[in-house]
């Protein structure tokens, strides 16, 4: 049941008027007087947009000033979202859904509430509901865009969410591939970005030249996106000619078609960065003919509902030793907040190196023999350069996108009071592998990380594939993939053959 306070707030939201609201919130009233058409860097932005689409510029109201009714509505919707986020933080996701469902009844035209509701279903591992509500949100966007006559120029905008986190920047790779392969819906995508708020501006720069774009101020982009939100694409979902799909399906579709067409990677490491990066490798002691593997293992307190993807870097040391024994170097990437590696031969703890900088990240991702990573932006970016990846300790195997010459090593799960870990099929019939959360209401379980042997064997498997130049799936991998598909999982990344060999009961039905 909703709390009395929340029911009262929603009732007030539904029945209050703008005048009552503005009397109650004088600070909002004062903010309204400060908002003017000139608060947005209008001239420069609209001039750039005019070069992309004169039709759009001439057909919309360029005044981004918020009127009283819209400001009121935005504030009320934000109150609903704040209540929902607070409940999620306390792991009360079912109550969060109640608040958002009530919010959709009060504000049936709120795209934000619909999208937030979809994300809560995702956090809960409710994949069909996540897809269903996401589709509803897309239908609402289409409806509002039609009512506001925003589709006349056939544009879709990609706002701040696409250029902030590392993994989101990597998603631009899919946007570009789908467009070049004529698989996207017919609208032209326009990237709006402020490179000052990017996780890696050097990486972003490589994508910017491949897509229509406007560089602007982050706050200005947010203001523009709020006004034209019915035609602003959100990160988790993609519009294709065939319909709306989740991001993992979109990535798989784009990468498989790109691979079938034998096309080169969308981005490559610029020569200037190769020259500078090679100088740093020399400074670290790598010979000119040395090859290296990059490693990124997520750890720490990153988002309470997304800790299932974390792992212990210490368990990777035997894997590191296996790579080094074969003549390679290992360069550990990540945040300076990560646990330092012990001093080891042919190992560079780049996460703690003075040379750590965005363009060097690009060099390492693009020039590595392959990458070892947990599920994070650090595992997705190397693939944009065509660098093979072993996605280790992969917990959310309900969705895992296809990338060439890559495979995953999944985590396993054991329900409380059960003697053994669940099989792949049994796992997929629970909410656990459909999201990244360690907490599910009314479900107690243990997460079983990859063993040291699992990780060593995965490295050996990758080397074997390189030696044979053969990344074809085995019969056992195909059978595991068929189980995934039969249970509704998406994405075509195979499960490591060595893992299936080590854990025979996992691949069984």
Care to describe what's here?
The protein has helices at residues 4-15, 18-24, 26-34, 42-52, 54-59, 68-89, 93-106, 111-123, 127-147, 166-170, 172-180, 201-208, 218-227, 247-260, 271-284, 317-325, 358-367, 377-384, 424-428, 452-468, 475-486, 497-502, 504-507, and strands spanning 155-158, 188-193, 212-215, 232-233, 237-240, 243-246, 292-296, 329-332, 347-348, 370-373, 389-394, 407-410, 412-415, 445-448. It has 509 residues and is α/β, with parallel strands linked by helices. The chain has 3 domains: 1-34 and 66-144, Tetratricopeptide repeat domain (Serine Threonine Protein Phosphatase 5, Tetratricopeptide repeat, Alpha Horseshoe); 153-263, no CATH class; 271-507, Rossmann fold (3-Layer(aba) Sandwich), CATH 3.40.50. The longest helix is centred in the first third of the chain and has 22 residues, at 68-89. The chain starts with a helix and ends with a helix. Mean pLDDT is 91; it is low at 17-40.
